What does this fold into?
Amino acid sequence: MEYRILGRTGLSVSVIALGCEGFMNKSEKQVCKEIAFAISKGINFIDIYSSNPDLRSNIGTALIGHREQFIIQGHLCSTWEDGQYLRTRDVDKTIAAFDDQLLRLKTDYLDIGMIHYVDSESDFNEVFNGPILQLALRWKEEGKIRHIGLSSHNPTVARLAAESGKIDVLMFSINPCYDLQPASENVDDLWADENYAHSLHNIDPERERLYELCEQNGIGIDVMKVYGGGDLLSEANSPFEKAFTPIQCIEYALTRPGVAAVMIGCKTCEEMQAALDWCDATKEEKDYTCVMTGMEKFTWEGHCMYCGHCAPCSVGIDIASVNKYYNLTVAQQGFVPETVREHYKVLTHHASECIRCGKCEKNCPFGVDIIGHMQKASERFGY
It folds into this structure.
């Protein structure tokens, strides 16, 4: 298992983490068996967005004896009424649901208190200018929440949250299809077939800026919808008309700036293992570019996707990392944040060492001007 630090929280999380939907409608025995399997494989991170009381109780039982080693991301404003999940902004309902969550999970704190499902700017303003954020801050001060997060599918809203300085973690939907789509307050737009019918070029710049902003500001991203609701794993349903493997989807998400973990909604231990196979996968098995290139409708021409196909560099430069750190400064209008400068500094080889042999450009499936990028990075960082 690979572990990454979740932004400025300092928490070391397994890159393969658990969504909770795979544990719904199962017995306590089944949930305990599957979580025990996850723990045996090194998974130490779970997202619990659902307010289903049986689900929470079963997960709480499964984590007995493992609580201090396991990182729980629980959601605020997710309630259970009349046998159904309900998102709310009502303070009293939020408090009652939070207390119930801690009780059923058999814990007195959440590692991450995730403000649940904020996709519109009006909802963001209500949450951040009203009592919900104040409630989260109070719970953090009391130690009932160690870190505050927000879940969203809308990059505009997610950016507002990241810029607010109030959140430490962002739960966001990331996969190659969604990254093509511009911001929208309607989450259904991400799935709409008509949005993929026309020619699409490159990652949506607002999404790219969001990932870079999170990395700059130390906001850890954990990923939902990494398989696009399963559509990306199906040739018939994938907008690319080709199927990705679970390993390819996970690799794509984990190579975006700021991303620490992917939340996999596994219904069986076999599905969990299919995700865990990423840990031991070969470079060829992780290669997602074979699905993303060569189709008329989609192109990432000239855009570094951090895929690593440019390697090996003749002089050992980690080209993908140099491009990522340079792009982080572009997002800051040329300012070099201290953290970015230090990350660049510790690279074994730097952009100034480029000998302009062109080998990397021949390997790049997206036609990136790598030599030009190395020159710009060398000028930006000074070496």
The CA atoms of residues 1 and 280 lie 9 Å apart. The chain is about 35% helix and 15% strand. The mean pLDDT is 89. The chain has two domains: 3-287, 319-381.
